[in-house]
Amino acid sequence: YQKTKRAADEMARSYVALGLPVKIVYPCFGYGCSWASSHPSMAEMTLLRLASGKPVVVMGSGKNILTLSYYKDTVQGILLALEKGADGRDYILGGPNLTFNEVWQGVGSILHKNPPRLHVPVSLLALAGRAANALTGKQFLPPDFLDMVALNWNYNSLRAQNELGWKMTPFRSALAETWSEYQSIQKIPVV
Asked: For 134-154, what is each residue's pLDDT tens digit?
């Protein structure tokens, strides 16, 4: 995943070098109402798991930082970059920066449930992944996932805010809206 993003970035910059009108946007860890077919969304792995009573854990210490990007805010950021962005300029579309623990606290708050307390060390996840691969020949987790979980992904979107007028929806408001949308399409239990 990261490799294809890097390749796309390099391609976009090569077009900029040719003088083409290119604006580059970097959406962060996306969340919102989604039924992704290629990979589970953050909402599916947190909000919907906790709502449906499935087992949930915090991977790693929970202190690692993620820069989140509400899908609706991302769409607005892309449109603003097209309309107001400078050619060759790049814009990070993300915020707020929250720890995994804070994400789970927000999810628990929206659902009126306790967030998970069990933290699974990344080293144990790696061991489980290798064992599952050896026993079944299948990947337990995507190849770069554990590296991602172990890092801090702390970015700011001040350029997008200042130059484009981009605004982010507060996390709990966006999460409440996401939950309401999932309930309205009746694909999940109402709690």
From this structure: 899 887 777 677 777 788 888
Q: How far apart are CA 21 and CA 8, in angstroms?
A: 15
Rounded CA separation 111/130 (Å):
34
Nearest to 21 by CA among 71, 80, 87: 87
* Cβ–Cβ < 8 Å for 110, 47: yes
Spatial distance between the Cα atoms of 182 and 9, rounded to a whole number of angstroms = 33
Helix axes 100-111, 171-184, angle to 10 degrees: 50
pTM above 0.90, yes or no: no
**Alpha-helix residue ranges (DSSP H) falling in the chain:** 2-17, 42-45, 47-52, 71-84, 100-111, 122-136, 145-149, 158-159, 171-184
Residue 79 is encoded by which pair of tokens? 């449109």
Q: How many CA atoms lie within 13 A of 119 on its CB side?
A: 13
Per-residue model confidence as pLDDT tens digits over 16-68:
999 999 999 999 988 888 776 566 567 677 888 888 888 888 888 999 999 99
